[in-house]
Amino acid sequence: MKNPPPPPRLRGAGTIVVMNRAKELQRRGIDVISFAAGEPDFDTPQPIKDAAIKALLAGQTKYMPTMGDPQTRGEIAEKMTRVNGIPGVTADHIGISSGGKHALYTAMQCLFDPPGAGEAPGECLLPVPAWVSYAPLAEIAGAKVVEIPSSPQTDFKVSAEQIRKAITPRSRALVLCTPSNPCGTMYTEAELRAIGAVVAEAARTIAPDLVVIGDEIYEKIAYGGIPHFSIGSIPEIAERTITLNGLSKAYSMTGWRIGYTATSGAWGLEFMKAMATLQGQMTTNITSFVYPAIRTAILECEGETRAFCEKFKARAALIHGRLSKMPGVVCPRPTGAFYAFPDVSAHFGKTTAGGAKIQSAQQFCEALLAEQRVAAVPGEDFGGCGKNHVRFSFACSEETIQRGMDRLEAFLASMK
Fold this sequence. Notes:
The chain is of the alpha/beta class and 416 residues long. It has helices spanning 14-27, 46-57, 70-82, 100-111, 134-140, 160-166, 189-204, 265-282, 291-300, 302-324, 361-372, 398-414; strands spanning 33-34, 94-97, 123-128, 144-149, 171-177, 211-215, 241-246, 259-262, 339-340, 374-375, 377-378, 390-393.
């Protein structure tokens, strides 16, 4: 009998590794200031909790349709039309999943052929630096990831021309995340329309199967003067755009595990059927008594999300101001989400007070945690120029930011 094949190699998400390490140190009573987790520190708004409790007490505890009940899917569809301007969205174009990551996983599995399917792998175009899970989830689905580099000088945005040059007949998906994790910056409407024009032209010529995956999980956390714009609202590519979103970030509901996918038109209906088939073999519906909470969030809690955004705006100004004054640190101004992504490579080649030699962002973060008890995420796993950067999540209080930046300053001052 032959030995079974080895399991596929899959790297862990660096963000989760650092977050869990910081939590373990805190559990042991160590004073760690963590900038690791992409998780708002606010409580879920009370009306949302009340809606779930009421549904639970009323007995809404049974199986539901795989992609969500029609009423909730209908409310999301109406929101995608009214707020995001995406045409042709009905309840049947919506799928509700166990968090945004689950929605992305399922979408990737439906877009790409599995490894060994007999054809050259489809390509996933990925502007980098990018969230740590995009590339692994594309690779699991059988895709070849094609990185498109950006830099701090462009606010970590790629141009339409760069995307045009990267497209080939094997291009199957272009992933865009705006506002960005890990970079905290945003594409303008004009920039997204230019990208949309490139995608539309490529679809007519060399890449008929190309679709856009627009990750808009941070859409309501935009404070830098750039209004959020959904690329799926561009008519020429609306029916080849998959919009991913959820309630985790904007409504401070990370632990609820609510993500959703929106499509448009005839192709979108067929794609959603494929997602439903796969999800039906994986998880089926999300927790039954959560659906009324989703509707309550969308319909009743915009005031809370605006208040959260104002706090993130103040925190962004604070942490950017502190980082920008530190020697050897280059940090584009955050305009959305809750991340700062400074370049710290000017300190590579130095030695810390504790004797650690710093040659990488990974070593920088390890020494920062060991010597100053500050947890940040090294940028290597984000790809591209991320290897020179460190991600600080400012989803924490202003007092925590001040204390953490004081420790970072002391750390940098100690290096020789």
